[in-house]
C-alpha cells in the first residue's frame, strides 16, 4: 500500500505545474508545494515526534501536515481560536514539544512552517518512500467523560488505506476541484485534503465559504469551479431548505455532494430529490475518528444511486451505507456496530484502560481479530445497507462532533457555584443542540445570574461545541429507581420555560464540524 507522502510526491512529479492548492485566488503548484513540504521536513529533522500545528485556512496548514508526515513525525492540529488552556491541554495530551504556527501558546519550541522551498534539483531518491505502517501519522481528539479529551493515535497504514478507498468512492480525477470546508481540527478535513492531493486534483480554500452564509458559500463554489463538496449533514439540511425557499440551483460544476455526521432527515432528502439534482451524486457517509475517516457510504441520489423505486427513508430510516472495501464490520447481539480492518487506530494515547474497553479482540473466521466498539446501534437492511438506530450510551453529536455529555458535566461541576449537573442533546429542527441542567451549590443563589455566569466561564475555557446552547438552573435532578441520574427524566421535568435559564450568546456556527 502506497503511503500518503509518496503518493503526493508522485502527483508532484506527474503534474508539476498544475495547481495543487488555491487559496482565495492564490495558486500553489504541485512542484512548489512539494518543495515546501521537503523544506519543512528538513527543518523538523528525522523523527520529530508529535508536532503541534496551529491551523489556519491556507496552504501553510497543508504544508505543515505533509511536511510532518514526510519527516516521520505525528501531526497534531490545534485550533488557535480555542482558549489558551484548552490548547495547552491538547498539546500536552498529545506529547507535543514543538508547535508550528504564527503564534503558539508558549510551548517548548515554536517554528513557522517553511515558506521557501529547496532547489528543484534535490535528488528524488531522498524523498520518503516507506515508513513503518504502524507508526502514528496524526493525533486527533474525541470527547471524554472525565472532562479531558481523549487523544486518538492513527497509524500510517490506517490513513493510507482509508484515502485509497476514498479516491475510488469519490471517483476523483486530476480535473476535480475540492472545497476545503471542514474544521481543520477534525478528521473530516483529511478526507477533503488527502484524496485530492494524492489524485492530482486541486484543493480550494475560499474565505466566503466559511461565513455560515449559504448564499455566500454558493457564490464561492461557483466562482471557484468546485466539483466536490463535503458538508456536515446539519449544514446540508440548511442548504436544502435554502434551495427550496429561494429557488436557487447548485452551481453547474458541482458533481458530488458528500454528507455525514448526523442522521439524514427524510423530509430534507425528499426536498433534495424534488429539486433538479439528478446529475449530482449525494453520498451519505459514516465513520469514527478511531476507524479513520469514512467506513460506510451509500449514494442516496444521483447517477450512482440504486435504480427507480429505491426510496431511502420511507421504511426504517435513511441508511449510512455499506462498508468500504478496506473495512470489515459486524453487528453485535445488542445491535452495536463493530469495525475491523487496517483502518483501526492504535488506541488512545496514555489511556490503556479506555483503549482496552473500546478496542477488543474477538474470534473470527480467520482467527482472533481486533475490532472497535463504535457504541452505535445499527440494523442491517435486506439489501446490506446499515441504518443507524441511535447510541448505546449517552454520547451525542453536536454539528457532527461527537460529544460525551460527561465531559461537559465535568466542566460544569468544576464551577464553584454548581453542585451537580446533567447534559442532554435535544433536536431543534434538523440539528442537535445541548441543554444543561445545573443544581446550585447553595440555596438562595440568583439562578438567572448563575446560568449566565456558568456560560461565560465555559466560553472562556472550552471550545464552542462543548458550550451548551442553554443552561437551566433547577432545584434538583431526577433519579432512576436504582439511584442513577436520569438525564431524559430531568429534561422532561425541567423545561427551559419552567426554570431560570440562559441561552448561549452563540448557538454555534454550522461550519465547525467534525468527526463523523
What is the overall number of helices?
A: 13
CATH class of the largest domain: Alpha Beta
Rg on CA atoms, Å: 23 Å
Q: What helical percentage do the residues reach?
A: 25-40%
**Structural shape:** globular
The major β-sheet equals: 5 strands, mixed
Low-pLDDT parts are 102-125, 505-516
- The chain-level structural class is alpha/beta
Give the name of the CATH superfamily of the largest domain.
Answer: ANL, N-terminal domain
Which CATH architecture of the largest domain is right? 3-Layer(aba) Sandwich
**Ends distance:** 25 Å
Q: Please tell me the overall pLDDT.
A: 86
Short description:
Helix 2 packs across helix 3 (59-71) and helix 8 (233-246) crosses helix 9 (266-274). This protein has helices at 4-14, 30-44, 59-71, 84-94, 156-170, 188-197, 214-224, 233-246, 266-274, 352-358, 405-413, 447-461, 487-493; strands at residues 19-23, 26-29, 50-54, 74-78, 98-100, 109-111, 136-142, 150-155, 177-179, 202-205, 228-232, 256-260, 281-286, 296-301, 322-323, 328-331, 336-340, 347-348, 359-364, 367-380, 386-391, 396-398, 401-403, 418-428, 431-440, 470-473, 501-503.
Amino acid at each position: 500500500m502506497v503511503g500518503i507522502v509518496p503518493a503526493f510526491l508522485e502527483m508532484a512529479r506527474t503534474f508539476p505545474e498544475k495547481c495543487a492548492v488555491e487559496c482565495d485566488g492564490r495558486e500553489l503548484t504541485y512542484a512548489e508545494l512539494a518543495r515546501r513540504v521537503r523544506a519543512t521536513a528538513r527543518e523538523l529533522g528525522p523523527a520529530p515526534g508529535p508536532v503541534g500545528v496551529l491551523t489556519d485556512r491556507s496552504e501553510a496548514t497543508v504544508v505543515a501536515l505533509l511536511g510532518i508526515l514526510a519527516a516521520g513525525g505525528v501531526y497534531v492540529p490545534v485550533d488557535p481560536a480555542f482558549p489558551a488552556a484548552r490548547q495547552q491541554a491538547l498539546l500536552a495530551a498529545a506529547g507535543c514539544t514543538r508547535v508550528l504556527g504564527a503564534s503558539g501558546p508558549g510551548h517548548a519550541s515554536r517554528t513557522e512552517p517553511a515558506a521557501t522551498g529547496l532547489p528543484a534539483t534535490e535528488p528524488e531518491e531522498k524523498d520518503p518512500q516507506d515508513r513503518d505502517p504502524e507508526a502514528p501519522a496524526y493525533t486527533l481528539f474525541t470527547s471524554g467523560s472525565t472532562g479531558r479529551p481523549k487523544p486518538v493515535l492513527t497509524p500510517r497504514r490506517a490513513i493510507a488505506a482509508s484515502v485509497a478507498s476514498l479516491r475510488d468512492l469519490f471517483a476523483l480525477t486530476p480535473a476535480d476541484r475540492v472545497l476545503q470546508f471542514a474544521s481543520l481540527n477534525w478528521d473530516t478535513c483529511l478526507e477533503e485534503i488527502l484524496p485530492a492531493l494524492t489524485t492530482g486534483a486541486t484543493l480550494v480554500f475560499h474565505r466566503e465559504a466559511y461565513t455560515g452564509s449559504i448564499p455566500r458559500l454558493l457564490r464561492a463554489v461557483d466562482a471557484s469551479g468546485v466539483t466536490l463538496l463535503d458538508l456536515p449533514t446539519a449544514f446540508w439540511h440548511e442548504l436544502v431548505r435554502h434551495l427550496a425557499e429561494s429557488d436557487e440551483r447548485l452551481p453547474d460544476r458541482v458533481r458530488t455532494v458528500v454528507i455525514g455526521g448526523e442522521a439524514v432527515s427524510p423530509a430534507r432528502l425528499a426536498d433534495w430529490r424534488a429539486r433538479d439534482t439528478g446529475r449530482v451524486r449525494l453520498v451519505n457517509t459514516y465513520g469514527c475518528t478511531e476507524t479513520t475517516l469514512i467506513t460506510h457510504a451509500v449514494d442516496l441520489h444521483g447517477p450512482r444511486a440504486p435504480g427507480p423505486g429505491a426510496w431511502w427513508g420511507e421504511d426504517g430510516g435513511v441508511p449510512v451505507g455499506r462498508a468500504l472495501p478496506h473495512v470489515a464490520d459486524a453487528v453485535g447481539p445488542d445491535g452495536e456496530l463493530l469495525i475491523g480492518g487496517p483502518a483501526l487506530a492504535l488506541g488512545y494515547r496514555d489511556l490503556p484502560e479506555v483503549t482496552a474497553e473500546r478496542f477488543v479482540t474477538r474470534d473470527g473466521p480467520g482467527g482472533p481479530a481486533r475490532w472497535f466498539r463504535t457504541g452505535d446501534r445499527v440494523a442491517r437492511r435486506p439489501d446490506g445497507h446499515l441504518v443507524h438506530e441511535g447510541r448505546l450510551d449517552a454520547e451525542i453529536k453536536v454539528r457532527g462532533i461527537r460529544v460525551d455529555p460527561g465531559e461537559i458535566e465535568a466542566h460544569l461541576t468544576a464551577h464553584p457555584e454548581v453542585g451537580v449537573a446533567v447534559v442532554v442533546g435535544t433536536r431543534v429542527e434538523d440539528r442537535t443542540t445541548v441543554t444543561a441542567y445545573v443544581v446550585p451549590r447553595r440555596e438562595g443563589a440568583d439562578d438567572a445570574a448563575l446560568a449566565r455566569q456558568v456560560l461565560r466561564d465555559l466560553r472562556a475555557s472550552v471550545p464552542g461545541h462543548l458550550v451548551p446552547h442553554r443552561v437551566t438552573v433547577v432545584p434538583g435532578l431526577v433519579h432512576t429507581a436504582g439511584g442513577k441520574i436520569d438525564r431524559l427524566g430531568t429534561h422532561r421535568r425541567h423545561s427551559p420555560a419552567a426554570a431560570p435559564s440562559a441561552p448561549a450568546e452563540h448557538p454555534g456556527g454550522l461550519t465547525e464540524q467534525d468527526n463523523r
